[in-house]
Design goal:
There is one protein chain. The chain is an all-alpha fold and 135 residues long. The chain has one domain: Arc Repressor Mutant, subunit A, CATH 1.10.10. The protein is 70% helix and 3% strand. It contains six helices and two strands; from the N terminus they run ααααββαα. Helix 1 packs across helix 5 and helix 2 packs across helix 4. The longest helix is centred in the C-terminal third of the chain and has 21 residues. It starts with a helix and ends with a helix. The mean pLDDT is 94.
């Protein structure tokens, strides 16, 4: 059996590759989608806040690039410096992409019961907290 680090890396790579391929027709990358989700949850999100929420997902440079791509592609705008907001078109495109994300989540969880999924996430959460507390 391969160690958990091996499977974590493979899973993350597979999630990114599959999600990027799935979203290729509508614009965002996996990281951009994560930024959009933060913006959806907090319509007054700031660049700083987005970087803080997604710090475990990517470094500051990658997050800045994702934010800039969303601005350039018309998903978001700056109602004031350092703050992001959906454009009307971006919000509509977010809803459309959400349908693809639903299919992606079904594919990723195929053959995995809800209980198995909760167990896997719970184990990873505990392992992460164990290691973070040790540092």
């Amino acid at each position: 059996m391969k160690p958990i680090g091996y499977w974590l890396n493979r899973t993350d790579q597979a999630l990114t590759a599959a999600m990027d391929a799935l979203l290729a027709g509508c614009g965002p990358t996996r990281l951009s989608w994560q930024v959009l989700n933060v913006l959806k949850e907090d319509p007054r999100a700031t660049d700083t806040g987005i970087r803080a929420v997604l710090a475990a997902n990517a470094d500051a440079d990658a997050l800045t690039a994702a934010i800039e791509a969303l601005l350039a592609d018309g998903w978001a705008l700056r109602p004031e410096p350092g703050r992001l907001a959906f454009t009307a078109d971006g919000l509509a495109r977010f809803a459309e992409a959400g349908v693809r994300i639903g299919a992606f989540r079904e594919l990723a969880a195929a053959g995995i019961s809800p209980e198995e999924y909760r167990t896997a996430v719970g184990v990873l959460e505990r392992m992460t907290r164990n290691l973070e507390e040790a540092v």
